[in-house]
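Q: what sequence does this backbone want?
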């Protein structure tokens, strides 16, 4: 997208040109639902030039060709087609013929160049009115000797034939017609039908295959030769009539319809590009897709048309479907059509008001006594609706059951209930794997349920998904299978839990965890799902999302449900978890008697959720009930995030609190914690970051103070640490609390130092670097291997990026170079310092200030520095942009010693003269690839690409003074200082 094809170009300029005018390739509005070229004039004046320019055409002046192209537009516009004598803004444009008046919708046009005899070799398509135009299928071709036909149209289709008409191009009385399957793209590969149509501009194709897509083309035939093939018109032969149908619309590409289904959009204002019935991957009732019916004008009729049903005139069938409206007060109308063509006669049958939630509807066609064979679902009131899961079936004599519900599940059984359809007292139940779509292939359970509308299915597999259907059973016959209802058997019970949600895909829940979302006051957006943010331990947490549900009359439950726990009734366990929310709220922790929507929730304790990750501990020591599931229920707030849930034995020795790691060095760190008060000592366990279970580590000796200095650590290494209380005697030890993660500092490095941010995929910073945020804006992060500051909507930036510590020697000159820039015309601000520590007070030496970075481009800067004292120095990059700008970038940070240049073999590098007046001579044993010249403010004043072992640099245009010259080879760089006279 966005780039126009090779050898094509654009001219955009002239008086009154809009700054937003552009020409680009775009991935939609092509005539074949493919890419097109978009010409966007925006608000340009009538004399502005917004021109798409062709490649050079060697035969433009031959007088034998024409230009043919297709357009799509939402408005009538004028397009001039002509020739150009160049590609510059002031090139002469010479229109050929008259302006083309482009109509709304999709159309094809041609411009004849047979009378052109001048010398231009470029064709320009210049848009002079309107706002936006899409072009596709641009063809430069020999002008046919016979005029083109037009108006090729499909008249009708049958199962094995199709009829067409067209308008003659002139006074010809013979035509060729060719057709092929939908994969054919070139009509030249086809054999025209025989005999060829004559006299009347019409033809009928026969011996076609039912339910098959074809393309058809027509060309004129004259004494002088043939015209161009015009088309294709795409059509599908009628399907053979069906008896029944069961369609969920999931097996076809988006924006199409299944075989034998079709759509009609008709009316005085119809715009087929925006008014249609087709599949979409939004708002499916089941699976991934549904059908959307949408329109822009109230006088447009939009129909979803069924296959032909031979059973429709029999008066024995009904249609069942799910639907919702995306407008309040929307409705759908059911009826019949005489055909699936746009001019079919429509007979309405029933109007159904819709809601904004999916509901199943049934329309009975048993009273229909007409001859139509197509069922129509019509958008009646509103601008759009969705339908899914359509079934055309025999209307049963036994009424449908309703309200199938899973009342309970165990590891190997499931119990269901339903509402009888009428006064029947017997039913059939079938179940199968999720892949089963036809319940008639299953065997009903025995004995069949009778008397009470409930059933229990046994001998199921634990933690396995199934589908279940139920039908009524009457004396005369059976009802329809109702369902499927999907369910999962329970997992085998577990004793303990330790779940961080980090191995679970987003928008799901871990195996054996579940959710309950119920209640008429629960919002549509309520959910319980894994997300990859707001976690205590990376990379995931669980979001419990709803709205406040306080009040006695509120019916709303949004609950995270644990696996089945055998230890819940023991009275010796506790629940620990972390929570956070940007909008403080309350969670209720309680128990459930099942993991189904009908389960009873019994609250035990409320916990406050604040805008900070906080660990909660809920004791179940007093629980005496029989429930086996724990529920964490949303009570107040909005989006609440929960992480690192543990169900564990409650230790008799109380937990330590507030573990802190400070004074982190290269080989040691200090650990502090707060005791619970009853313990006599503490133990520490620590290891590498890969350790997940502290019991696998060697616990240190019992400590009698709440501080410990860890020694003999490795530099630049990630560690985890845990602490537990020690009570002794029957109370034993407390639980291991943690982990707290920390990273030891890096040892300082030496010059040359480079940081190109290629070592991290982001958003975290590279090892040995750091971020210090002294404001309320955002932090530095790495995006696409570039150091990036992303704007904050409300707060100014004041954040620092610090390099690794670098050993610098007093009195030695060094060079700092870096790239910087932004991505818009917004103003970004950057300062660069260096100092002896990674804090604001130590950043004593300012090296550069860039207060107006606005060029939407990459810039380079070089700064020289000479420290007064030897030591370990840090370079700090301070983003101080104002709020609500855009993005600031830094990359390719380098600190080098210009006098050292160890990578170069100095004796092989020559430069002269110095001082230099005009020409600087450079040579090296390796090929020199680039030269850049900087003034002492770090501004690049000259740059050139080279590919030679010796070269000359013309400095005559520079003012007198000192400059730095950076010489690059394939592998190394060398910087020299020169004096320009």
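A:
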């Amino acid at each position: 997208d966005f780039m126009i094809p090779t050898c094509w170009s654009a001219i955009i300029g002239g008086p009154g040109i809009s700054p937003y005018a552009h020409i680009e390739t775009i991935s939609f509005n092509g005539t074949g639902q493919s890419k097109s070229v978009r010409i966007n004039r925006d608000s340009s004046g009538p004399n502005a030039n917004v021109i798409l320019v062709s490649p050079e055409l060697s035969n433009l002046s031959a007088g034998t060709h024409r230009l043919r192209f297709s357009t799509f537009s939402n408005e009538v516009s004028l397009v001039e087609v002509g020739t150009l004598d160049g590609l510059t803004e002031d090139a002469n444009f010479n229109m050929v013929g008259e302006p083309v008046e482009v109509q709304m919708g999709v159309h094809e046009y041609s411009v004849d160049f047979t009378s052109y005899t001048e010398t231009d070799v470029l064709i320009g398509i210049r848009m002079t009115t309107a706002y936006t135009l899409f072009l596709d299928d641009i063809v430069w071709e020999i002008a046919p000797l016979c005029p083109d036909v037009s108006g090729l149209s499909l008249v009708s289709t049958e199962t094995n034939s199709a009829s067409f008409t067209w308008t003659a191009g002139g006074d010809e009385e013979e035509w060729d017609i060719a057709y092929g399957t939908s994969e054919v793209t070139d009509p030249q590969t086809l054999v025209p039908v025989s005999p060829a149509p004559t006299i009347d501009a019409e033809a009928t194709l026969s011996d076609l295959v039912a339910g098959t897509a074809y393309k058809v083309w027509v060309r004129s035939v004259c004494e002088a030769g043939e015209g161009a093939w015009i088309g294709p018109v795409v059509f599908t032969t009628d399907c053979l009539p069906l008896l029944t149908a069961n369609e969920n619309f999931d097996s076809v590409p988006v924006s199409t319809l299944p075989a034998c289904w079709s759509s009609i959009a008709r009316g005085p204002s119809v715009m087929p590009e925006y008014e249609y019935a087709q599949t979409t991957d939004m708002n499916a009732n089941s699976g991934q897709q549904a059908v959307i019916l949408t329109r822009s004008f109230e006088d447009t009729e939009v129909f979803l048309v069924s296959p032909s049903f031979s059973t429709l005139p029999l008066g024995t069938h009904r249609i069942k479907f799910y639907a919702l409206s995306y407008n309040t007060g929307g409705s759908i109308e059911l009826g019949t059509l005489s055909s699936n063509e746009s001019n079919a006669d429509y007979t309405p049958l029933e109007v159904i008001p819709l809601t904004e939630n999916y509901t199943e509807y049934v329309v009975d066609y048993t009273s229909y006594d007409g001859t139509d064979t197509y069922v129509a679902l019509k958008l009646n009131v509103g601008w759009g609706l969705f339908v899914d899961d359509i079934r055309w079936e025999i209307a049963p004599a036994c009424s449908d059951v309703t309200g199938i519900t899973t009342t309970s599940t165990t590891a190997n059984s499931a119990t269901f209930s339903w509402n009888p359809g009428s006064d029947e007292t017997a039913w059939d139940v079938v179940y199968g794997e999720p892949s089963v779509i036809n319940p008639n292939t299953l065997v009903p359970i025995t004995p069949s349920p009778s008397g009470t509308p409930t059933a229990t299915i046994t001998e199921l597999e634990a933690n396995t998904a199934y589908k279940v259907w139920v039908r009524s059973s009457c004396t005369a016959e059976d009802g329809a299978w109702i369902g499927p209802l999907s369910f999962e058997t329970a997992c085998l019970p577990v004793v303990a839990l330790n779940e961080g949600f980090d191995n679970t895909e987003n928008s799901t829940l871990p195996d054996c965890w579940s959710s309950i979302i119920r209640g008429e006051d629960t919002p549509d957006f309520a959910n319980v799902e894994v997300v990859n943010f707001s976690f205590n331990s990376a990379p995931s947490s669980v979001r419990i999302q709803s709205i406040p549900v306080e009040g006695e009359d509120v019916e709303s439950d949004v609950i995270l449900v644990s696996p089945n726990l055998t230890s819940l009734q023991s009275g010796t366990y506790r629940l620990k978890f972390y929570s956070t929310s940007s909008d403080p709220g309350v969670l209720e922790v309680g128990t459930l008697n099942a993991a189904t929507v009908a389960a009873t929730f019994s609250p035990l304790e409320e916990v406050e959720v604040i805008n900070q990750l906080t660990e909660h501990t809920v004791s179940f020591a007093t629980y005496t009930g029989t429930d086996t599931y724990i529920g964490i229920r949303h009570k107040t707030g909005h989006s609440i995030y929960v992480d690192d849930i543990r169900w564990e034995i409650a230790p008799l020795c109380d937990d330590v609190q507030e573990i802190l790691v400070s004074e982190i060095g290269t080989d040691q760190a200090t650990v502090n914690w707060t005791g619970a008060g009853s313990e006599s000592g503490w133990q520490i366990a620590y290891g590498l970051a890969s350790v997940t279970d502290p019991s696998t580590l060697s616990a240190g000796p019992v400590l009698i103070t709440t501080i410990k200095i860890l020694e003999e650590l490795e530099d630049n290494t990630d560690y985890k640490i845990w602490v537990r209380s020690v009570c002794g005697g029957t109370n034993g030890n407390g639980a291991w609390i943690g982990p707290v993660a920390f990273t030891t500092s890096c040892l300082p490095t030496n010059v040359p130092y480079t940081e190109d941010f290629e070592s991290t995929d982001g958003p975290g910073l590279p090892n040995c670097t750091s971020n210090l945020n002294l404001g309320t804006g955002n932090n530095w992060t790495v995006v696409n291997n570039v150091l990036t500051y992303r704007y904050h909507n409300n707060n100014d930036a004041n954040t620092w990026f610090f390099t690794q510590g670098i050993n610098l020697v007093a009195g030695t000159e060094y060079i700092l170079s870096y790239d910087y820039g932004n991505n818009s015309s917004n103003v970004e601000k950057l300062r660069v310092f260096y100092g002896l520590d990674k804090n604001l007070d130590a950043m004593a030496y300012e090296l550069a200030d860039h207060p107006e970075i606005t060029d939407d481009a990459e810039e380079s800067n070089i700064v020289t520095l000479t420290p007064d004292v030897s030591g370990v120095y840090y370079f700090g990059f301070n983003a101080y942009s104002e709020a609500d700008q855009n993005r600031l970038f830094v990359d390719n940070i380098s600190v080098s010693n210009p006098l050292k240049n160890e990578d170069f073999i100095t004796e092989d590098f020559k430069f002269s003269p110095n001082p230099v007046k005009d020409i600087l001579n450079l040579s090296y044993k390796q090929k020199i690839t680039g030269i850049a010249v900087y003034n002492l403010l770090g501004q690049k004043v000259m740059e050139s690409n080279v590919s030679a072992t010796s070269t000359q640099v013309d400095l005559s245009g520079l003012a007198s003074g000192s400059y730095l010259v950076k010489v690059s080879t394939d592998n190394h760089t060398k910087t020299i200082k020169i004096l320009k006279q």
